[in-house]
Structures are given as C-alpha cells and as structure tokens.
Fold:
Amino acid sequence: MRINVEALREEKGATMALNMVEEFPPVDLTRSELVFVEPVRFAGQASNTGHRIVVTGEAYGRARATCDRCLSEFEMPLEAMILETYYRSDEAPNLPDEDEREYGENDMIDIAPAIEQAFILLLPIRIVCDEACRGLCARCGHNLNEGECSCLPDEEWGLLQRAKIIRET
Ligand SMILES: [Zn+2]
Ligand SMILES: [Zn+2]
Structure:
C-alpha cells in the first residue's frame, strides 16, 4: 500500500485523500497464521505537517485464523484506526522517535507494515472462534463444540482412577 507523497511534500498543510485496496500476505503469529481472505482496505488521508507526513484513517480486513481452544479455522473481521507519522530518511531527526517511521528519498510511503501491526495489536492474547468455544476434550481430543464425546465426566473419571490406584496397591 504505497503512497506517492512527492506532490504533498511541496506544500505545508496540504492534504491528500486516500482510498486503497490491496492483497496482504499471511502474517505469522506465534501459534498460528493469520491469512487474509479478502483484500485489505484503507480509507483516510495523508497530511503534510511541515517536516512530517501524517497518515490517519481506518483499515479493514477479513482474515482466517486458528482457534486456540478447539484448533478449528474460522474467519474474523479486522478493523483498526491508523495514526502514523513518517519522516523522509534525509530529514531523520537526531533522536528518532520510536513511534515515527521512515520513508525513502523516492517519496514513496508504504503503509502496509503499519496496518499489519495495528491489526496484530488488536488480536486478543488467546484467539478463540467464539467466547463460548468449549475446546477439545483433554482425554480424546474430540471437538466438544460438535457434541459430547464418550469420555466420562471429570468426577467419575477421578473416582475411577482412584479405584484403580487402590486396586493396584
Ligand atoms: Zn474454538
Ligand atoms: Zn473425550
């Protein structure tokens, strides 16, 4: 998602409307992968604030992920507010601000990395297909969202194990 800011750089205070659509490659998460199932959209604007280009707007996407509880794949909408500040590499500050991003002297700003990061920051620590997801049976691995398995309830299982231990000792 590249923006040519050559013209925008000429006038302080100038603004450029942005409406972009682009395919994003999958994102590697620690436990699974986030696969975009439709192109990511961005609507917003870029502004020249003097020595910086500020990009604001909203990014939308739809991705397939793996549920941390039941391990099934599901799709989820992604929506992130974007507010990014960019400086040109030859105007880099002496003490770079960690929140600011650099762009090259060809005046092209790629906002895709900022959008990808914003999407990832929105993900919960545990990605679940549904808050009510029952996950997998710890004993047989059956997906409990599809119904009960034939394993005994925990209580009976515990009694059975205890009875076995008693018998074996
Ligand atoms: Zn699930
Ligand atoms: Zn089971």
